[in-house]
Amino acid sequence: MKSHKTAAAFGAVLRELRKQQSLSQEKLAFESGLDRTYISLLEVGQRSPSLETMLALSRALQIPLAYLASLVEARLVESSDDRRNAS
Amino acid sequence: MKSHKTAAAFGAVLRELRKQQSLSQEKLAFESGLDRTYISLLEVGQRSPSLETMLALSRALQIPLAYLASLVEARLVESSDDRRNAS
DNA sequence: GTGTAGACTGCTGTCGACT
DNA sequence: TAGTCGACAGCAGTCTACA
Question: What is the pLDDT of residue B54?
Answer without folding.
Answer: 98
